[in-house]
Design a protein that fits this description.
The complex is a heterodimer. Chain A is an alpha/beta fold. Chain A has 15 helices and 22 strands. In chain A, the strands form five sheets. Chain A has a seven-stranded mixed sheet with strand order 11-10-12-13-15-14-20, sandwiched between helices. In chain A, strands 17-19-18-21-22 form a five-stranded mixed sheet, with helices on both faces. In chain A, helix 4 (133-147) packs parallel to helix 10 (278-290). The longest helix of chain A has 15 residues, at 133-147. Chain B is an alpha/beta fold. Chain B has one domain: Thiamin diphosphate (ThDP)-binding fold, Pyr/PP domains (Rossmann fold, 3-Layer(aba) Sandwich), CATH 3.40.50. Chains A and B meet through helix 6, helix 7 and helix 8 of A and strand 2, helix 5 and helix 6 of B.
Chain lengths: 453, 331
């Protein structure tokens, strides 16, 4: 029976890729282990090997095709004696044959915002260009490195490998190994070295492959970087950026799936930012590098490949401590950040269908937090729902809820609901992971609850 | 691999010996005074005295050049005085006053001086080791020819981050001298009880870092080793390790009764190896100085220390508004 060869998922978060090149042609006999094609993900170009033996009966997706979804049939493999017509007949059940696991994370993510109301970050009519969050981070870093010789990037696989998540792709070529520094896998050590170099006048950007590994380095982040300015009576501090993907990716299990936002936001001496869009990513990155304090820059792997409009101007920065109202509304305030914004904005769309007008605030900076914008919105809508993927006890939403209670108690028409990830280590199973994270429906339900609908 | 140990006494002038004597004596008298003020309740919290270890920092500072950097642990008063920081500012920090180096906000364990290139004053055992390599990273990056002294104890020498740092420091040829001040006790844990390694400096060999053991009670030997280390670093060959064998006469901190060693052990060290007495003997037997000359120095040092103590008592406590400053740059 003919076997369909499906577009493979080549990373935990891959949803689609480019079929860069076929290395076989129709009629070729292949055996297990033969390289069939080169597939380009947003992270890397990977070789794709045959699992089964047979003859390539038909190539269904031409070389050079972009945006091929994972699990799409890309070719048909014939067993001995079969002819190509078998291929066509068997292509229908492809969807059913696809493993459910590969699809689950995609469903859990929710859509990306499409509505862009007027923004305080750029003037109306500003020329825009589309780019991914990944490109925006890279552009932000590169622009600052061109501007200031003391800025350098350090971390695991940032150089020759071109970045574990391709954020620093091409930067080694442009800036050289002195300024794009590959480290051994020693987070504690290189974080300390970076802090020392910042105390002596450099401006390091430390990439953690993910923030999970920053726990190895947390003593230097907090005791060495955040506290030195105070302990030295203002004589010296650590102007630097600690950055990398934070929070759950997809199906990577408990030790690689954790949102650290609430941890870092507690520390005086640190600034904490977490971008949602590509514009946030670029504007906040440039501000972070210029800031004279240690900045925790929390990215999200799932957002790296998402595209947004970014102002096409010379020196685009976003100030710290200013939230952005991504969508205006009158009935309920939804406060979120980073990937949480995808749930918040999707929920706002659904709520609109039911006649509920949600105002969606993208925090962007977690510390210092723009509580004024939150309070002003709550005084208007009288209701608030916070949305984050982190755990409930000691959450960002818990802090916001406390601020609202103290500063706008009389304006509230319902208790604040703080939506978070579930209070469990991240499970691996696709269905369990989906439920451990947030869903758009949970946000919708919470908003209906506070609006008594 | 390993460099030769110091065998011959270097030539030394009377002036230089007097300098070492004066500086070591300043540290000793300062620390004795700090102990006294602690007993009077004027200094709070943790206070780790450097008495007995004076030759280490004085010898190494003699090998340093202007602009070289230093970073150390919480037992830091001696390092600050040796690199030329003002005793008044150090003592006033111990008493938590506004005239202290950190305006009273750092305390005994956390002082810094940009002017004297002193980068702290760190309270987490061994954290200063990667920080020191980072200072050297910056110097190499900026190409300024400077060298960093990263001081740590025999206790810190068992921390993992030391070895992460050794690896990267050698990999990147960082100009840093790792100074292991082996005073033989990590709080109450003797070196023999904490490791079966015969020597601490030899661990650098695993990473390709040369080094040597030094008699830390002999200021001239320390200086000579320091010069070898600095020359190695400054020539671009990367880091160097000095394991300086020294001894702390007092407890780990003021509240340590030091029951883990005998009185006889401490007394023997004081009687036979004291770094200040050794220089004093050299000065007298070499007829570089008379008893009266030395008495005059003692008097001068005493006056400096008394002034520092007086300043530390009269300097006002920080204004309450200081609670909220220096949390963020440009705040």
């Amino acid at each position: 029976m003919a076997i369909e060869i499906l577009m493979p998922a080549l990373s935990p978060t891959m949803e689609e890729g480019t079929l860069a090149k076929w290395l076989v042609k129709e009629g070729d006999t292949v055996s297990s282990g033969d390289i069939l094609a080169e597939i380009e993900t947003d992270k890397a170009t990977m070789e794709f090997e045959a699992v089964d033996e047979g003859v390539i009966g038909k190539i269904l997706i031409a070389a050079g095709t972009e945006g091929v979804k994972v699990n799409t049939a890309i070719a048909v493999l014939l067993e001995d004696g079969e002819d190509a017509s078998a291929a066509v007949a068997s292509s229908a059940p492809a969807e059913a044959a696809a493993p459910a696991a590969a699809k689950a994370p995609a469903e859990a993510k929710g859509p990306v915002a499409t509505s862009v109301p007027q923004s305080p970050d750029w003037a109306e009519g500003t020329k825009m260009k589309q780019m991914t969050v990944r490109e925006a981070l890279r552009e932000g870093m590169s622009e600052e490195m061109r501007r200031d010789e003391t800025v350098y990037l350090m971390g695991e696989e940032v150089g020759e490998y071109q970045g574990a998540y391709k954020i620093s792709q091409g930067m080694l070529d442009e800036f050289g190994p002195k300024r794009v520094v590959d480290t051994p896998i020693t987070e504690h050590g290189f974080a300390g070295i970076a802090v020392g170099s910042a105390m002596a006048g450099l401006r390091p950007i430390v990439e953690f492959m993910t923030f999970n590994f920053a726990m190895q380095a947390v003593d230097h982040i907090i005791n060495s970087a955040a506290k030195t300015l105070y302990m030295s009576g203002g004589q010296m501090g650590a102007p630097m950026v600690f950055r990398g993907p934070n929070g759950a990716a997809a199906r990577v299990g408990a030790q690689h799936s954790q949102d650290y936002t609430a941890w870092y936001m507690q520390i005086p001496g640190l600034k904490v930012v977490s971008p949602y869009s590509a514009a946030d990513a670029k504007g906040l990155m440039k501000t972070a590098i210029r800031d004279n304090n240690p900045v925790i820059f929390l990215e999200n792997e799932i957002m790296y490949g998402k595209s947004f409009d970014v102002p096409d101007v010379d020196d685009f920065t976003i100030p710290f401590g200013k939230a952005k109202i991504e969508r205006e509304g009158t009935d309920v305030t939804i406060v979120s950040f980073s990937i949480g914004m995808t749930y918040a904005l999707a929920a706002a769309d659904k709520l609109a269908e039911d006649g509920i007008s949600a105002e969606v605030i993208n925090l962007r900076t977690i510390r210092p937090m723009d509580t004024e914008t939150i309070l002003a919105s709550v005084r208007k809508t009288n209701r608030c729902v916070t949305v984050e993927e982190g755990w409930p006890q000691g959450s960002v939403g818990g802090f916001i809820s406390g601020v609202i209670m103290q500063e706008a108690f009389d304006y509230l028409d319902a208790p604040v609901i703080t939506l978070t990830g579930k209070d469990v280590p991240m499970p691996y199973a696709a269905n369990l992971e989906k439920h451990a994270l947030l869903t758009v429906d949970e946000v919708v339900d919470a908003c209906k609850k506070v609006t008594y609908r | 691999m390993s460099a030769k140990k110091a065998d011959a006494k270097p030539n030394v002038s009377a002036e230089e010996l007097m300098g070492h004597y004066r500086e070591m004596l300043l540290i000793r008298r300062f620390e004795e005074k700090a102990g006294q003020l602690y007993g009077m309740g004027l200094i709070g919290g943790f206070c780790h005295l450097y008495i007995g270890q004076e030759a280490v920092v004085v010898g190494l500072e003699a090998a340093a050049e202007e602009g070289d950097k230093r970073v150390t642990s919480y037992r830091d008063h001696g390092h600050m005085l040796a690199c030329g920081m003002d005793p008044k500012g150090v003592m006033a920090e111990l008493t938590g006053r506004t005239g202290g180096y950190s305006k009273g906000k750092g305390g005994s364990m956390h002082m810094f001086s940009k002017e004297k290139h002193f980068y702290g004053g760190h309270g987490i055992v061994a954290a200063q080791v990667p920080l020191g390599a980072g200072l050297a990273f910056a110097d190499k990056y900026l190409g300024n020819g400077r060298v960093t002294f990263a001081y740590f104890g025999d206790g810190a020498a068992n921390q993992g981050q030391v070895y992460e740092t050794y690896n990267m420091a050698e990999l990147w040829d960082l100009p840093v001298v790792f100074v292991i001040e082996n005073n033989q006790y990590a709080m109450g844990m003797s070196v023999k009880r904490s490791t079966k390694s015969p020597s601490l400096w030899e661990r650098g060999a695993a990473y390709g870092i040369p080094g040597e053991e030094v008699d830390g009670m002999d200021v001239l030997a320390v200086k000579a080793a320091g010069e070898r280390a600095v020359a190695h670093c400054r020539s671009g060959k990367g880091p160097y390790i000095l394991e300086v064998k020294t001894y702390r006469y007092r407890g780990h901190s003021m509240s340590d009764p030091a029951k883990y060693r005998t009185r006889e052990e401490v007394q023997k060290m004081k009687d036979e190896r004291d770094p200040i007495d050794q220089v004093r003997d050299m000065l007298l037997t070499g007829k570089h100085a008379s008893e009266d000359d030395l008495k005059a120095i003692d008097k001068e040092i005493k006056a400096i220390v008394n002034d520092a103590a007086e300043f530390s008592k009269t300097s006002p406590e920080p204004d309450l508004s200081e609670l909220w400053t220096d949390i963020y740059a440009d705040q």
